Amino acid sequence: MPRVNPIDTEYFKDERRTGDFTVIGKTVQRSDALGHVTGRTEFFEDRTFPDLAHVKIHRSAHHHARIDDVDVSEALRVPGVLRVITHRDVPSNWYVVLRLIGIEPNDEPVLAEDRVLYKGEPIVAVVADSEAAATEGAARVRVSYTELPAVLDVEEALAPDAPIIKQAGTNYFVYEGHHCRRLRFGDVERGFAEADHIFEWRYSSAPIEHAPTETTGCVVVPQSSGRLLIHSNTQAAFFTLDNTALILERPFSDLQVKGGTVGGGFGGKVDVMVEPLACIAATLTNRPVKFVYSREEEMQVSSPRAAERIYIKDGVMDDGRIVARKVMLYVDAGAYSRHSPYGTTKACAHLPGPYTIPNVYADCHCVYTNRTPSSAMRGFGVTIADFALESQMDRVARAIGMDPLQFRLRNAYRDGDMKAHRKIAEGTALIEVIQRAAALVGHELPEEYRALTSSTPRGDQP
Amino acid sequence: MKIVNLKVNGVGRTFIARPETTLLLALREQLGLTGAKRGCAQGACGSCTVLLDGQPVVSCLVPAVTVDGSDVATVEGLADGRKLSDVQQAFLDGFATQCGFCTPGMIMSAEALLDRNPNPTRDEVNEAISGNVCRCTGYEPIVSAILDAAERRRAGANL
């Protein structure tokens, strides 16, 4: 089949050792495609087990509330309901998935204890013979609440008079003693003072749900050895195994995760949301247990991409050089950390974009609110930051009457430049990529911009 | 509870269905045919598409007891041994699968289209799969594969 975009063999020609390429440029069939077209690919829910029990969840009705009482008596009277699971049944109820890479504190309960921090937070799990009985049982759990003031905006959450929603005492993740992830390079205020123009704009994004066609789920099967076999559609088998074992207070070797077949993930299946409760249910009932999100749960409570708010202030010279950039960035982690402390660090690491700017200042905040916890999604941290940075580049270029591509070429980093993170730029190719993109769309660049390369030394060049 | 007789992929099958048993769950859990997927259980995603008396339906919305005596075609019945149907082969050759979860439903919608319209336009293909959601957003190769399958079918018919 002909490629839509033929491979350009001219670029980096001198860097290729001829004859070594055996796959690039050739068409290779996916190993799983035959299973996909015949319907034989085994997704986790395609396995059936005799005596399968089902888990459904009773979830918080409020964004922020104290739990005064939980009454499961009606749920237990539903025919087919085997038992209910509360936080008392979870051996180690508090976790944060990123503890595996040293992130702390454990800030999220598997099942809520005395407080709920977001609408849809799990409070009670109901195990039943059938999905219908589990759903009915979950609906009959009665929770009494005292509603608490909710914080639903990142900047309001950081205001001095905001209600503190987190046990740790701050509505933000603490980075090595600081209220945000910081980037400091040069003297940004001096840069602004010297600039011919100052531009400051705000960018914001809403949460984005991955909405995979296959919802999050797993089937846990107790083995005769006493181990638990977890059929899961997780994107992160080892994160799942390790976190589940820590929550269960069992050795890692007690669990086996079979996964790898994911009906759409996009980052939405890297949290550890269903396996711990399914394992507890399977252990308590000694039966295979399925816990799969309904479409409604997938939309309401699975972690979306974080909403972000980003302020970018640039100091720019008449000739198009950016001499100072200050970024205030807020990631809405929602109620719990999940992967957002890492995503916020990624956002900070991405600033100030692929441009050489002598004075840079950034504060990147991972903020807690009473919204659905956000987490990973395709390039999280970077994607929205890029939207803001590149929108800013276009707006600044137009404001000073400069072609947006020439404006980027003028500021693009080059080999040997010192980046704001105090790393020397190596192997840069932004200039060549922009030149090639311009040529492909018929955007004419003046000769001095066409002649630029990533290894052109800075000086009087544009 | 009711006894339901179906002809599934040409073979007579009998099972007992509760009033709330959907055709999808009967196929998956009682007849062991897991090709049709449960993506939303509300008729919105098309992952459970099968052919009921030749017509594409979202099987998650069809109570099994209402289709007693019908012909049902699922993705498992398309290949003849190891020989794939034209649509399956075109999906395979055209890289029209990514995660694969929407693929069986997508293929059944395509089979239904080509059964009634052997020479569809691109717009008609878009219309035919408008009820099938692909979240990997691979629609372009899917549409191209269906057009390719139509060509293969016509070439086969002319042999």
Protein architecture, described:
The complex is a heterodimer of chains A (462) and B (159). The two termini of chain A are 43 Å apart. Chain A is built from 13 helices and 17 strands. With 462 residues, chain A is of the alpha+beta class. Among the domains of chain A are: 185 residues, Aldehyde oxidase/xanthine dehydrogenase, a/b hammerhead (Aldehyde Oxidoreductase, domain 3, Alpha-Beta Complex); 127 residues, Aldehyde oxidase/xanthine dehydrogenase, molybdopterin binding domain (Aldehyde Oxidoreductase, domain 4), CATH 3.30.365.10. Chain A has a seven-stranded mixed beta sheet, sandwiched between helices. In chain A, strands 9-17-16-15-10 form a five-stranded mixed beta sheet, with helices on both faces. A three-stranded antiparallel beta sheet of chain A has the order 6-2-8. The mean pLDDT of chain A is 94. The radius of gyration of chain A is 26 Å and the shape is globular. Chain B has 159 residues and is an alpha+beta fold. Chain B folds into two domains: 76 residues, Beta-grasp domain (Ubiquitin-like (UB roll), Roll), CATH 3.10.20; 73 residues, [2Fe-2S]-binding domain (DNA polymerase, domain 1). In chain B, strand 1 and strand 2 form a beta hairpin. In chain B, helix 2 crosses helix 5 and helix 3 packs across helix 5. Chain B is globular and about 45 Å long.
